[in-house]
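Re-run with default settings, no changes from the original entry. Doing this only to confirm the output is reproducible before filing.
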Amino acid sequence: MFAVIFKAKTGEQDSHYSDMVKVMRELAFTKYDCQDFIAVTEGDQEITISYWTSEADIQNWHKDSQHALAQQLGREKWYASYTVEVVEVKRRYSFQE
């Protein structure tokens, strides 16, 4: 399993941003086999972690034309800065009541 960690300092996030987030999330799940997608914003900091079965799925999602448009808009207005980390999950465990 792999994870993509997206950390950003937000810029101007308008209603188009919210719509694009929904599209990107749906695209990741339906077309590229994303397993989970979690996003949190606090002040001007955003972190999103998505989980994937394969690195190939991540690369294909990254190359998607809709995702390329979202990235362009992100650089132009939605984010002041961001970093992306792709990591392999070596161990995973959980607790449930």
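The chain is about 40% helix and 35% strand. The chain has a mean pLDDT of 94.
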